[in-house]
Specification:
It is a single chain. The protein is mainly α. Helix content is 82%, strand content 0%. The chain has 5 helices and no strands. The chain is flat. It starts with a helix and ends with a helix.
Length: 152
Amino acid sequence: MNKTDKIVTIILWALILISTVLVVSLFVNISDVDEDPTMGKWINSNLVWAYILVGIGAGIAVLAGLYHAVTDRSAAKKSVISIVFLGAVVLVAYLIASPAIPQFPGVDKFINDGTLTENISKLIDTGLYATYILLALAILSILLSSVTRLFK
């Protein structure tokens, strides 16, 4: 076990210890009274800790991906191809999206307070169309891989 592995192991055990202390403290302070401030503080502490862990995990995942892309030329090439493909899908979805505001009961409330505009409606349509395009491509790739296996 090298020095980096030891440091990572120590950090992981420290995170596990902190998480365990917070969860046990939460369970010890659970009460049937909804207005109990102690229980609320422990719930908030656990939620903040969960947010911190998610942030650390996401940050490490992004940094590891960037490091891998920078150190490996073929990985960088594949990353650029993937980003360009995703950009093309979003561009196509944006071009076919409509800025028309949908009509449904209560839409006037959202229009009057400014939460639903033509720009927002177009962005929502873009997200929906991009999802539909990616879903269709995923289904096609599954079908094509099954068909190509049959012929092999």
